[in-house]
Each structure stands twice: as structure tokens, then as C-alpha cells.
Amino acid sequence: MASSATTSSAPTGGPRSWPARVTGELDDYTIGARAKGKTGAFDYSIERAIQTGNRAGDEVWAWGLATTAGYTFDCAWKPRVM
Q1: Domains of the chain: which residue ranges?
Q2: Averaged pLDDT score across all residues of the chain
């Protein structure tokens, strides 16, 4: 997906050193994928996203990854451990 907007950021305080004000066009693209499945009592899920583009003339590049896995016991109340 693509988006284009004029953005403005102000410092929020904290340990990082942010520029006082950044303005300009935002042109970014994000692509991602998800896989999930179950084999017997084991289950899993994995998600990945990558973002690239430009903001106020600066390159944007970011990524994310999330995983989960679990095991469901075969008994009357079906407890699941992650």
C-alpha cells in the first residue's frame, strides 16, 4: 500500500535526540506476509513486514517480525502453553 501525506514531528521528550521539526512529503510502501499452521498438538504463527520509502527527502526503511508457538494438551480442559 502506498500513502502520501505532509508530516510534522515535534520532540516528545526522553533520552533520544529528535530534530526540533521535520516537515515534508511522506511516500512509503509496506509489504508483509503471514503463515500459520497446526501439526498435532503444536501450533505456530509467523508474520513479517517490510517498509520502505521517503520522508522529507530521507530514506525510510523498517521491518517487523512476530512469532508465536504453542502446545495444547489433550485432556478435558485443553490447557495451552505458549
Answers
A1: 2-9+23-81
A2: 83
